Amino acid sequence: MRAVILAAGEGSRLRAYSKRPKPLIPLLGLSLIERNMLALKECGINDIVIITGCYDNEIREYLGSGQQLGVKINYLHNPQWKLGNGTSAYTFQQEYRENEKYILMMADHIFEVELLRRFLKEAEKVKQNELLLASDSQLEKVYDLDECTKIKTDGNHAKILGKNLKDFNAVDCGLFLDTGVLQRTLSKTIEQGAYTLTDAVNLLAEEGKVKLHFVSHYWVDVDDKASHKYCETVLLRSLVPPKDGFISRTINRKFSLRITKLLASTKITPNQMTVFSFLIAALSAASFAMLSPLVGGLLAQLSSILDGVDGEIARLKFLKSRYGELFDSLLDRYADYLIVMGMSYAWFGATEHTTTALLVSAAALAGLPLSMLFKEKYRNLTGKPYLPEIHDGRLRYLPANRDGRLFIIMLGGILNQIPAALALLAAVTHLQTLFRLKAVRNFL
Amino acid sequence: MRAVILAAGEGSRLRAYSKRPKPLIPLLGLSLIERNMLALKECGINDIVIITGCYDNEIREYLGSGQQLGVKINYLHNPQWKLGNGTSAYTFQQEYRENEKYILMMADHIFEVELLRRFLKEAEKVKQNELLLASDSQLEKVYDLDECTKIKTDGNHAKILGKNLKDFNAVDCGLFLDTGVLQRTLSKTIEQGAYTLTDAVNLLAEEGKVKLHFVSHYWVDVDDKASHKYCETVLLRSLVPPKDGFISRTINRKFSLRITKLLASTKITPNQMTVFSFLIAALSAASFAMLSPLVGGLLAQLSSILDGVDGEIARLKFLKSRYGELFDSLLDRYADYLIVMGMSYAWFGATEHTTTALLVSAAALAGLPLSMLFKEKYRNLTGKPYLPEIHDGRLRYLPANRDGRLFIIMLGGILNQIPAALALLAAVTHLQTLFRLKAVRNFL
Predict the structure, then answer these.
(1) Chain-chain contact of B381 with A353 (C-beta, under 8 angstroms)
(2) How far apart are CA A221 and CA A230, in angstroms?
């Protein structure tokens, strides 16, 4: 399927804050239109048509053939862009292939990838002669309702649309699936001197041909400075994965998301962050071994926070890779091992090499990879991820996932209680394994 | 889909060796017909019709409703079974539903489950008015060719069949997918006084309606004492999983398969074997700790051998479970940990608690779960298992998988070289991880 992105407008309200044309305004390391193209690509759409208007040259120069992003871009210029966005959408007419279904979206509307994915799934079921429109009925959550195009709905269909509608129960997200019917209608409305997209959609709505897909994920129309900032906030919030443990969710992400925001506009890659987080862990281990438990503990927690950043950057900038994930998992295990070995070494020296130190250290070391082993095996057996927040029940407060373990280590370092921290690590990790084995017995 | 199993004959040649009717003769812990039903169940077929003849009562009494096996059995009795197996197959006519596709098989032909699975996949594509017949064209591998029904083929179709055919290039495996055409033909041939299945199949072959599915997995017609023994051998051989490492393949399986053969007829469950293997490992750990490295080493290797038995029994007797696999994986990790901790404890005592002993032991301990971590993560990322024999290249000779690690431990025990064994364990496990990370970089 092809996607058509409208990038013809002037974007006057953001113009005051940025020299770039609106579709090229950066947001967390990617321009708005790049983010949309990469999101489409993640959903399997690589063939993109951009309709330019006001900033034809700038946009072509900036994006080129799309090769760098891994997509194919064709440009169409709409010299009449000033008349209204209906003329821009209608510019696609010259490229439209009979019976083709295509996605129509705005360069400056940013969607969570999952929203796009579900819309595309719904799009498979749309009938010829219908237009599918993404709409949001959770009005209390919609940002800047005043600026939205409102919809009065009739079940799953739109009855009437308009910016100044008084009686409405949903808003238009600016994401369409056209089966050709919109192009035909645009040709009529434009001839009659009605130049906006809403004019054509309204005509179709009157005929009962605008089917609505109600979204449940976030989307933002980036229109001004405030919505730009809001979009950053929701994008960052969406980066927290469901697999997160309790400490990570309540503490680490508060910091890691800020770091990610700072690093987003740099060229730092997720794998570089993985290595950096590992190096901090190695420094933590060395600090423990050299009898600076306070520094060791703080560095361990820093490493734990940084451990979230690689994944956040990867998701934020569409840089996820299977190798990256494997590399991160294994380096995390080594980081854990090194820190615990540093702690053991310190304890060992302090107690003149007792057998207790050896055995407790060994038990703590052995416990470190168990959570990952369990989760990976579980996923392979069931095809579903093991999510501590859901599957562990009350056990999720046991600090035995990585976030919890490194938190124990930090406390052990700050309070200079290495033996107790190691004993606690051993206890929580082995207990967690035991409980999990018991818990899944009945439903595996 | 339903399956019809012919179990009507007298089985005179095996009668001399067993008091039971042939379909009920045990083979590695399951009767022949039970094995076939459980194999069908594993392929998704739970609705089974058994045609009895000579031993109607015995078979009904032994198998009952099938509930215990997790299948539904309907019995049909063929009083004319002595006339020929065509009359038994035709007994199904009274139950046959219009346009139904069903599997027809013999109670005493044993198939590898994968053969059945592929046959069923091919069966989806068979046309109405055709009969699909499993046949084997690898004649040099066929057991007791003399006894087989031969086929002269014409591409993917049978031309003529017969036990005494001179010119042939495949044999009949006794596994059919009938679309109804066989039942109609049997009614004709039986009326004409031709009572065997081959008579009807031959008539269809003449009309070009017998499509052949060529098998590549093993199957055995269990007809006499020799073929019974042969079937045991190939069944046991099929239990070695593709994930096996070098030491396991060349040494451990030689012993474990014999143990499995001995235990097959007992009620011992795979999970019980998992626990038993773990207890032997715990004994090995205790022996090392109590300064009996020779015993410790031998018990470690015994535990390694026993570690194969749980999976073999599970596959052999259709007792696989996801929980069993998870339980085994985690208990194996604990077994490894305990043994290495026992060795460390011994070394630690012998060297008056040196730091070297602490660090080398920690490195060895940390290396133990890495192979599993890598393989599970790889499988989750790619959807495919990581098979050391295939993916590791020359690295597969590095004894860093569990079979190799326990072999190193055995050698360390026998030669009383615990420090060297621990150092070697640490070296091979971490090297393997490093090499694997490097190797998958390009194709992940």
Answers:
(1) no
(2) 10
